[in-house]
Structure formats: C-alpha cells, structure tokens
Fold Tetrahydrocannabinolic acid synthase.
Amino acid sequence: MVFLNVSSNYSSISSLVYTPINSSYQSVLDFSIRNLRFMSDSTPKPLVIITPEYEHQIPPIIYCAKQNQLQIRTRSGGHDFEGLSYVSEVPFVIIDLLNLSEVKVDVKKKTAWLGAGATLGMLYYNIAIRSPRLAFAGGFSPTVGVGGHFSGEAGAYCSENTA
C-alpha cells in the first residue's frame, strides 16, 4: 500500500496513523463507539485510522485512499450510534476528525464556529463559560459530533435567554 507517499512530510502525519499492528489501534477505533454491536470481532474493521491535526492533511489522505481503492469513512469526534462512520462491507479507512475540535464563541455576534471534530458537549460548555445568557438548542446528547450533526464544519447561532 502506498498510503502515505503522497505527503511531502511523512513524519508530520506518521504519528496520526493507526493500523491494526499499532498497540493503540483498538482503543482509537473503540473510542466513540456507543453501539456494542460494532465492537464485535465479526464487524469489519478499517485498514487504517487517520487522525489529522490540520485541515491541509486531509486531501492527501483522500488521494491515497482513492489510489488504493479504499472507501473513506469520516468520524466527526462524537459517537455514531448507527455505525456509518466506522463500518463498511468493503476495505476502508477512517478519517477521524477528533483533533479538529476547536470551538470559537463570539458573544457579541451570538455565533459559534466549530471544527468538524467538536461535540455538542464542547459547544454547550464553551457557550456556558462565556455567557450565562446564551445557549444553543442542538440536541440532547453531549457526545454527538457536530460534524455529523450539522453536516460538516458549521457555524451555530446562539439564542439568548431573556428571562
């Protein structure tokens, strides 16, 4: 597999790549799985899990996966109860966006900018520490990844409690 040869700086991404021979592969895979059916030995596993730290690391991952005819599954930092982000019937890789989890809240504009790896809990927490009056009604589970919840990197409008 010529998976990382496209990257101009192999060492910059090698610590972000997990294969079944890595001791931490299983814990990285299992990190956000909440539906135990996807933890069984019979569930197909990814050939590689990549946890990019920067957006510019993603295009070479996609290129390499396509070159190797691997399906790409994206995990956005939170749980996926249906398992769509970590199972496939064909050989696949997971791009885990957990490290892209920045949350920026602008209290004056009543907006928040979220990295695709952030969770609803991270959003709620960051709003709460910046303002006792702002809130965001986005869901009830703090472990849901906003990347999947809002379909990619998202902006969120905060509502104000006027009571």
About this structure: The first strand starts at residue 17 and ends at 18. Residues 1-7, 152-156 have pLDDT under 50 and may be disordered. The chain has five helices and nine strands. The CA atoms of residues 76 and 146 lie 7 Å apart.
